[in-house]
Amino acid sequence: MTQPPLILASKSASRRAMLDAAGVTYEAIPADIDERAIEQNLDDASAPEIAEALSVAKAASLTADHPEAFVLGSDSLVVVDGTRFDKPTSRENAAEHLRFFSGKVMELHSAAALVRGDTCEWAHADIARLAVRALSDDFIEHYLEHEWPAVGFTVGVFRIEAMGVQLFDSIEGDQFTVLGMPLLPLLGALREHGVLLA
Asked: Which residues contact 172 (CB under 8 A, 6 or more apart)?
């Protein structure tokens, strides 16, 4: 039996690495959507609802050109002290984010969705809680010297698989959620829909 194709609607290196390591065959085609415009229409939604909605929107943006494929969209949101943060807009903005995060708990919401044709076949959101240690200005400057501009493409201003691990005292939650996608539930959904062997 032929398995339906899978398209990853993302250019995220960490999401590609997760799928590669798991042995999932896919094609990566970045989604082109206006995330801020979608978020503005979701004013009363919770962070996991927004992450899920953005995941669906990313996937749905590619289905017209690939009607037979399952398209995988994924998104992550960071909330600290009730404030939601997007990716930093500059190195200075990244430093501001890190100063705000210092000594607080970061809630990282990661979601994924599978869309085929006009139908969202599956969507899931998960949360990880990361305790940010007290960060000195000297450390923040040193950190950004080494990690900028790579962390400019990440919410939370960190790559956990790189120097970003130094930001935290403790982490509660699934490692794949921290990396930006709830991989285990996704693999289950891919098996259920025949994309992966059961």
From this structure: 128, 129, 130
Among all residues, which ones are annotated catalytic?
Answer: 75
DSSP 158: -
Name 41's Cβ contacts closer than 8 Å, sequence gap at least 6. Answer: none
pLDDT digits (tens, 9 = 90+) for 61-96: 999 999 999 999 999 999 999 999 989 999 999 999
Judge whether 29 and 7 are in contact, CB under 8 Å. yes
- Look up the pTM and report it: 0.93
Confidence (pLDDT) at 40: 87
Per-residue pLDDT tens digits for 6-46: 999 998 999 999 999 999 999 999 999 998 888 888 888 99
Phi, psi for residue 36 in degrees, rounded to 5: -65, -40
All structural domains of the chain: 6-192 (3.90.950.10)
| CA-closest candidate to residue 72, choices 198, 183, 197 | 183
